[in-house]
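Continuing from the previous page of notes. For each protein in this section, the sequence appears first, followed by its structure tokens. Read the first protein now.
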Amino acid sequence: LGSDLNRGLLKFAKKVPIGAKYDFNYYINTRRGIFWLKIHLANLCGQDKLSFDDRIKYIDDNISNIMDSADHPLSGKRWWLDSENPWQSLASCFELTNVIRSPTPELFESQIPVQMDGSCNGLQHYAALGRDNLGALHVNLLPTIKPMDVYSGVLNVVKKNIEMDAKNEHPLATILNGNVYRSTIKQTVMTSVYGVTWVGAREQIQKRLKERKEIDEEMAYKCACYLATVTLKSLGQVFSSAKAIMEWLNELAHLISSHDKPVMWVSPLGLPVVQPYRSKRKHTINTILQKVTMIDNDDKLPIHLSRQKS
């Protein structure tokens, strides 16, 4: 969708009453839309880790600043400029001010897109598929007072595993104990659902360790090897069903590919999906000036086993 400025300019073409709930072909007036507009503005201002009640309170406490931003965006207090997403916040200030000043706020016709973001979407799907209560809790599929942070949740398990190894005098665990952070493992957790390998996890973690410069560069590789193992193990402990489902899908892909067939399925909407991963045939042409390599893609070429599995 582009930058903050681009998103701040986006509006729905069709206006809808902000309090409308469409149910059985009738509009029912509620205040739910106003609630979500306030939540949206609070999120844009960096308050997305608070509970819903606290986010609403944050907006209500700043109503005068919000209305001032709408009335005098350049010459007023310019509260909107302090937001993490200033242009989207300004657009929401305009909208919320118009809602407040409307004689019937619930009937105000709104065009503002209210953003809804997932929490590590791939793990959300796996938690739902596996009916995994613990995993679902970490990725906000179950109700909590405050939003859960999946990366911090996995980090806590990683730290516990490292502490246990450190007590047993594991040399690398002793070095890493107290030196592992959310940012150290975030990329590995994020890419786990895309089939990140141990080597990929080790490279990601080694890069983060070098950036922080808290561990000797010569030891960063060895520490990354150990921490990659611990992180993937901890992920399996938090998302046990995800690990089992991924292993099952991997086994299916191996069986299908071993019969030289691509993995394919039909989505619930009836859309046929095919993984078109096949081996490539290369042709090298030698000329006086240089070598030219041409790659031939053909549906008759053999299936690429490892890519079908990943």
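Done with the first. The second protein uses the same format. Note its length before scrolling.
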Amino acid sequence: MMIKELKMKQDYDASNDSLFIYAAENHNYKESLEVSSNIILDFDEDYIPRAIEILGASKILNINKNSLKHLSNVDVLVDVSEELVHIKASFTVSNQETIGKPLDVKTINDLSLPQLQAHFELGKV
């Protein structure tokens, strides 16, 4: 199974309550997978996860909008198996406290994505 470590950046749009976490390096977009009604995972042409968008982020993560503007670290693990795509994430603000509730969502791997694990970390940028 391939394991990929990715340096990430983030952008939070408070007016739309949308958190976008994306790969710092350039890549060629291939397609998106709707993991849940509010969580979208983007893949590159090699089917490496390169971005995650969380719509309604403050509600889903139980984090106030001001804290989402000041994240110091986001730690995301994407685990793609033959059957499932599983995303786990935690969020930290500048005072080093993990905030909100961790993200833990799964969906069927109906795109026949190759098996891999990808680890995104915002703090490594």
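What the second structure shows: The longest strand covers residues 2-13. The chain has one domain: 2-124. We return to this in next week's lecture.
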